[in-house]
Amino acid sequence: MGMNLARKLLAAVLALAGFLPSPSAKAQQDVVFAVTASPSPVSVNSSLLYTIVVSNVTALVLPVQLNNLFITNSFSGPFSVITASNSPNHLGDNFLDNNGNYVFRINQLPALGIGNVATLKLTVRPLNGGSFTNRISANTPGRPFVDTTNIVTQVESPSTDLAVGMTNVASGVTVDDATVIGLSVTNFGPNVATGVVLSNTMPPSFKLLSISPPNSHTFTNGNLVLDLGALTNGATRRFNVTVQPTNAVTNFNLIASVSASGVQDTNPANNSVTNVITVSDFLSTNLTVTWLSEQFNPQTGLREMLVELSNTGTNDVPAARVSVSSITNNAWLYNAVGTNPGAAYVLYNSTLASGASVNLLLEFYVFKRSEMIGCTLTAVGVPALNLAAGTNGVLATITNLPGGDKMIEFPATPGKTYTIIYASDASFTNALTAQPSIVAPANRVQWIDSGPPKTVSHPSTTNRLYRIFQSQ
C-alpha cells in the first residue's frame, strides 16, 4: 500500500469514528483542515468567526510529530482582527506577518492519539462588501509541503433606514436677506450607517454664511455637501445653514438628500425632501420713517422707540420693512424678524395705502437705559407674506394692560419656537400672524401685543383673539 493511500485510508477511518472532520474537509499531505465561517453571509464591519480544526494525518507506518507548524490566514480584502484564540496549550503565539496575514504558530502537533488536533478561532471584521476569501495554509520548516484551503464568505452592506428633513425655509425672502435653512438626518436603524453624506442644492446665487454646529463640508455653485461619517441607530444630526441670496429667483426647488456608501437603505422614499423658495427684489416705493419718542418699559425690560412709517408715494405698498443700523449702547433690535445684510429689520405685513401712515413700536434690548443715539432708520417696500401657523396648539392666558396692550402668557418648552396668530372673530377665518415667532427662553413666556409691527393694528382698536402654536 502506498504512503499516500495509507494516509487517506487513515483519515477516512478516523473521520467515521468521529475523531476527524467530515469527508468534506480538505485532506492533503500532512494535515487536514475543517473550517467553518459564521455568520455567512456577514455584514460589513460585523464580526466573522472562523473555527479552524487542524489535524495531523502523517503516515500510518511512520507517524511524524509536526513542530513549529504555521497556519496562515490570507484575506482577499481589508479586515481588522477582533479576537484570536487557540487550544490546546501546546500552541505558540499568534501574530500578523509583514504581508498583513494572520498567523497561528503551533509548537507541537503529535500524530495519532490524543493531542493530534488543534482548534483555532479567529474573529475578524471585513471592511468592504463583496466576496471575502480566507486562504488558509499550513507549512512547517524542514518539510516540503504546503496544505491550503479557501473559505469564501459573502459580505453584505448592513441595512438601515436613513431619513432627511428640511425646515425653516422662509417665505418672503428678499435679496441679501440672511436666511436660515434647517437640515436634519436621522438613522431609524437597525444598523449603524457609515459614510453618511448630507447634500443641499440651492440656487447658484446663494452665498454660504455659516453652518451650526460646524461640520466638514464643501460648497460649490449652491451645492452644499456635509460629510457626517458614521450615524448610529436612532441618532439624529441637525444643522442650521445660514445663506444669503444675492439675486432674485422664482420657485426654486431646494433639495436636501442623504446617502451612505456603507449601507443598504431600506426606505429610499425618505432620502430626499424638497421645499420651494422664492427670492424677491425690493419694491420701488416712496417710504419714510420718522422717530417720534422713546421710553424704557419696566414691564418688559426693553427700551421702546415709537416711529412713524409713511407712504408718500402714489401707489399702495403691500408690506414694508423698517431697518435699523448703527445701533449703539450694545443694544439689539428685540422684535426684529431678520437681517439684511447685517441690519436688523421689523416687518409691517399689511397694505400701507398711498398717503397713509402707521406708528410702529421698535423694541431694543439694552444694557443701559439711555436713549438710542445715532442709530439709522430706513424704510423699504416688500411683497406681502402669506404666513401660516401650525396645528399644535398651546393654552394661554390674556391680561389687559394699561394703554390697551394685551399680555399673552403660556407654558413653553425652552428652545422651542412658538407662533402667535390673532383674529377679530372666534372662527379665525381671516387670522393673521404676529411677527416675529418666539423662541422660548424658559418654561413660561410672556408676550405683549403692543400693535405694529408685531400686529397690523393696536389691540385696542378691535376685539382681538389669539392662538399660540408650537413648531413641530
Q: How would you characterize this protein structure?
A:
The protein is mostly beta strands and 472 residues long. Helices cover 3% and strands 54% of the residues. It has 1 helix and 38 strands. It has one helix spanning 3-16; strands at 26-27, 31-38, 42-43, 48-56, 66-75, 79-87, 91-96, 102-109, 117-126, 130-139, 147-156, 159-167, 173-174, 179-190, 193-201, 206-212, 217-220, 223-231, 236-245, 249-260, 264-265, 272-280, 287-297, 302-311, 319-325, 332-333, 338-339, 344-348, 357-365, 376-382, 393-394, 397-400, 406-411, 417-423, 432-433, 438-439, 444-449, 465-470. The strands form 8 sheets. It has a 6-stranded mixed beta sheet, with no helix packed on it. A 6-stranded mixed beta sheet has the order 13-22-20-15-18-17, with no helix packed on it. The longest helix is centred in the first third of the chain and has 14 residues, at 3-16. The protein is elongated. Mean pLDDT is 87; it is low at 1-8 and 10-28.
